[in-house]
Predict the structure.
Amino acid sequence: MEQDRLVFDSSMSNPENMDIQKLVATGVTNASGEATLGNITHGNYTIEVEETETTSRYSEAVLIDSSTLNIEVQPIYSVTVTSNAKNSKVEFIASDKVRRVENTGDNTSVTFTEIPAGEYSITISEETHQTLNSSGVINEPIDLKYSLPKVPKLVQIDSDYESYLLDTAYNYVDIMDNSESVATIDLKSISSISIIDNTVKYSNNELAIKGTLSLHYYD
């Protein structure tokens, strides 16, 4: 049975702006993606494919002048982004050029759905970490995992400490004499230092500081 469809623009005051389209055939594709529509004469038509869990909606004006018409429906996928920093802001731009923005929250992950296949770009930012930019190609559901380096910080030391606890949230710290690095400590293996009378001691090392002592943390 044919169905009527009304198509009109924003000016309903003029009946000439209204057009009637008739639904002439429907079908469902098989496992090979083929559908047979009967009693279709050659001519101009609009063909539409409904959105599914794995493909986006398709609509196009076509000229049918043979018994076979090939169309390409764009696949869509889910993309999960995980950051090592809580409450990261994730900006995701897929091949459709739509800017999608989400926050990872406390679980450090966010999932974008109905992402079209193709190239993408991503920016992840969080105030205590360095901003990360990346890009790639989507051709299947993917999980993207990123590790954002922490923003470096400089701490000036002006007192003595028998045992000064280092900030092990970072990977490394440089011991600075004025503005010059005189030693680098791997914070995975050393978590504290001694600072007495302008002398820094850790492990089997001893450093005499001549100027201002500061610690430069970084990843």
